[in-house]
Amino acid sequence: MTESDQGPLKSSSRRSFLGFGAGLAAIACTAPAGRGAAKERSQEGTVGRRDYPVLIGSVNALPGMQKFYGDLREGAAPLDVAIDVVKVVEANPDDHSVGLGGLPNEDGVVQLDAAVMDGRTHNGGAVGCIENILHPSEVARLVMERTDHCMIVGRGAYEFARLHGHPHTELLTDDARKLWLEWKETHSDLDDRFAPPVEEGKQARNDHGEPEERVTGTIHCSALSTSGEVACTTTTSGLSWKIPGRVGDSPIIGAGLYCDAEAGSAGATGRGEAAILAHSSSALVELLRAGRSPVDAGLEVMARVTRQARRASVWQPGLVDEEGKPTFNLSFYVLGLDGAFAGVRLSGSSEFAVSDPEHGPRLEPTRAYLE
Question: Can you give the pLDDT at residue 191?
């Protein structure tokens, strides 16, 4: 057992987070007020009103929810359970978007990002570009509990993890290495590398010989405990074949995740740059604070993401299509203090994982902003 599995915080001397900017304050002022009204709003498949406790997250959080939701029902701390949920995927070599088996950067190196946040203490911790550590979510918790910092990156994050007992682990599996080598051999026709013959069942490729879609997956989990406390975590291996050192939204508190004991919790998966520029997770929680329902909050922030993508397309062609719709995707997972929840996606059909006392762990359809 690592020290990240141990008990409560050793110190309460952490510096409080900075207040939000004028833009979010304006949202709070103009959004409809009243939590009672938010509790009454409901939309089948995307939002629910349930008794405590509740877990919500990305599709790949379902196996962890099935394994650990019982702990949450028995009174376990929400951050303990949220981390246990994502650790299942961090250790799964068949999931190429998180942890062991994650697809590497363009140099063939697996670099992981993760963050945690505890709504009760309003503390958070994160690691970025950490290598050779199996459970970055646990290390992010150590940053929160055992330092006066919010984020440690690169070699420093690795050394910090080793100092606290996390073993050195080779994260590049043979399957991930073959996928990386296949990409390296096919992303240009001007070098001296030859691609292997295309085998039946291999990933579909475009006219340039590249995979149709780059892996952008991540895992997020937000937890609401039996006592009404919230916590969350997000962890990822990031965009496949990324520039070494690239950090997406997952370890950025306020972008890839955010929670507050006074409002609720939220997280994001998908195009990290879009979540960062919209400061999506903190915006979602601020809308909850203002009385908006989880699904309404998700749709409002998706509208912001869409407007920002259209503005950015002036200097970044291809970010939106000819109709002004973003060519990327993004998903939000939103959880209110009353147990209401929502999964919202920018476009297309998808699902999210949720667990509550009424129906237990399951998948439900997300609400698409661009229907």
Answer: 62
Backbone angles phi, psi at 259, to 5 degrees: -150, 155
Tokens representing 162? 């080793």
* Listed residue (81, 28, 57, 90) closest to 267, CA to CA: 57
pLDDT of residue 52: 84
Number of structural domains (the chain) is 1
Spatial separation of the C-alpha atoms in residues 299 and 305, rounded to whole Å: 10
Q: What domain range includes position 327?
A: 52-190+208-370
Q: Determine contact, residues 220/232, Cβ cutoff 8 Å.
A: yes
**Average pLDDT, consecutive stretches of 10 residues, N- to C-terminus, the chain (371 residues):** 38 38 39 35 44 92 98 97 98 94 96 98 98 98 98 98 98 95 80 63 45 70 96 96 96 98 97 97 98 98 98 94 95 97 97 96 97 77
Q: Are 332 and 310 in contact (CB under 8 A)?
A: no
Q: Which of 189, 244, 179, 188 is nearest to 214 (CA)?
A: 179
Question: Tokens for 83?
Answer: 């981390």
Q: Is residue 202 part of a domain?
A: no
- Contact indicator for 68, 326 with CB cutoff of 8 Å: no
Amino acid at 214: R
CA distance 96 to 103: 5
Task: List, by residue number, the catalytic residues.
Answer: 218
Please name which of 132, 139, 97 lies closest in space to residue 116, comparing C-alpha atoms.
Answer: 139
Specify whether the CB–CB gap between 185 and 194 falls below 8 A: yes
Four-CA torsion 186, 192, 198, 202, nearest 10 degrees: -40
Whichever domain contains 242, its CATH number is 3.60.20.30
User: So what's the pLDDT on residue 186?
Assistant: 82
